[in-house]
Design brief:
It contains six helices and seven strands. The chain is of the alpha/beta class. It folds into two domains: 89 residues, no CATH class; 72 residues, no CATH class. Strands 1-2-3-4 form a four-stranded mixed sheet, covered by helices on one side. A three-stranded parallel sheet has the order 5-6-7. α1 packs across α2. It is globular, with a radius of gyration of 17 Å. The model has no long low-confidence stretch (mean pLDDT 88). Bound molecules: fe (ii) ion (FE2). The site of fe (ii) ion has 5 residues, from loops.
Length: 162
């Protein structure tokens, strides 16, 4: 998932808004070398900012140390000469989006403004409740992998009449 912006001199700047680049916390990068390789590939594609969005999994990884892990990741990036800005974020499961307190959601947000929500197999009702709760927490919801949202997938399969 990428977003594009123009910088002050009119050059296109790309931001990868969803990347499992932090090693060892989810099914993304397996080790720091793989993280660095992901960074090299991104830089080759013209991306200059990556939002590190590891899966947050209740009972396994709540992302409390994301900023520490990101600091550790910045060192090899700087040493390699890669000009990639690494920004903390998280991919937050729907259940947590619907129930977590504002402080936790803020801590998992992207810049205190956006929350990347994992849609996967949620129902439309769960999605609506989660979006409502996220909005009440002062954040803009962003849907990760909307193509995996089962309700939308079924709608497409049935021509919008399911
Ligand atoms: Fe993801």
């Amino acid at each position: 998932m990428t977003a594009a912006l123009d910088n002050e001199v009119g050059q296109m700047q790309f931001i990868d808004t969803h990347c499992h680049i932090i090693a060892g916390v989810d099914d993304g990068a397996a080790n720091p070398a793989e993280s660095l390789e992901m960074g090299r590939i991104a830089a080759g594609d013209g991306i200059n900012t990556i939002v590190a969005t590891p899966h947050v999994v209740e009972g396994y990884y709540l992302g409390e140390d994301r900023k520490v892990r990101l600091s550790e990741l910045r060192r090899p990036f700087l040493g390699s000469g890669l000009e990639i800005n690494l920004v903390p974020g998280a991919e937050v499961p729907m259940s947590l989006c619907a129930s977590a307190d504002e402080a936790l959601l803020q801590s998992l947000s992207i810049g205190g403004r956006y929350l990347l929500m994992e849609t996967s197999e949620a129902s439309l009702d769960q999605l609506a409740k989660s979006i409502y709760h996220v909005k009440l927490s002062g954040l803009y919801p962003v849907l990760a992998h909307p193509e995996r949202f089962s309700f939308a997938r079924d709608q497409c399969r049935h021509g919008g009449s399911a």
